[in-house]
Amino acid sequence: MDFNVKKLVKDAGAALSRVVQMTEETLGTSEKTELDAHLEHLAERGNATKMWTEKILRNMEAVLTPNPGNRIEDFFFEKIDKRKPNRLSNLEYVGTDMIEAGNDFGPGIAYGSALIKVGQCQQRLGQIERDFIGTAANCYIQPLRKFLDGEMKTVSKEMAILENKRLDLDACKNRVRKARSMLGQQSESGISPEVLLDQAERELRVAQSEFDRQAEIVKLLLEGVSSSQAGHLRCLHEFVEAQARHYAQCHAVMQDLQRELAGARQPSPMLRVNSEDVIELNSSPTLSQNSSVTAGSAAYVTATFDTDISKV
């Protein structure tokens, strides 16, 4: 493989110089060039936007897909650009079990029939939930993820470059100060201090120019991050509308189920005769004097039954 030896040496020297500069700044033995107030403010807002967007995205994904294993599986399919598995929701699994249980118990009995109705309702709720999850992912989660993977990743990359340019600039400033302090002294390298100072100042001008240019690039990108919140606001409105539709549909389905179950409920019959005497279910019936019994035949008692429980 063809290597550019000079470039490798130059890059290694620059990296070493940055490490030395950073160490001296940490120890307090070297000055640090600060960003201008406007750029510093934009950088703080950019970092806050990145932090909160990442947190909201994680929480939204956890709400829409509570199972961590499913989230990992979905992430894997996205990375390999494959279609996500069309898995059933938990409500749909519950609904399927209820329907099977109702058919097993018998749809002709009250409990079996109710299980089938409730199970079918759970399946409808599960489908509504899956539709909502898909809509929320398209209108809110995907734009946020695209923002983090696109704009914010570019900003982070350019901010890292700006920090390197800043370290290079401060290292050049240190060399200029050192060269000025050696004026009038004998140089160990045999090069006059004036020549060393002139070289250090040229490097400083180049470093300052590169730092200023990179600072402008970062400033423009960070201003774009602030303006992107308008797009996030539209996405948030779309998510709220989707969530409102979701809960309205769920409420309508549950109301229909309640009416259906209430209509299937029948009052329990009670036994009552027309006279003031009430025949209790657990007591033995006695024959009145007017009751006629024929020898060798069954005895008959004439009675009227009423299902009105309030009159008992």
UniProtKB/TrEMBL annotation:
Signal sequence segment: none
Listed InterPro entries: AH/BAR_dom_sf (IPR027267), BAR_dom (IPR004148)
Domain called BAR: residue spans: 24-270
Swiss-Prot/TrEMBL keywords: Coiled coil
Coiled coil (residue ranges): 145-217
Cellular component, GO annotation: cytoplasm
Pfam families in UniProt: BAR
Record's keyword annotation contains Repeat: no
SMART domains associated with the record: BAR (SM00721)
Record carries keyword Magnesium: no
Highest taxon, organism lineage: Eukaryota
The protein, known as: BAR domain-containing protein
Organism expressing this protein natively: Cardiocondyla obscurior
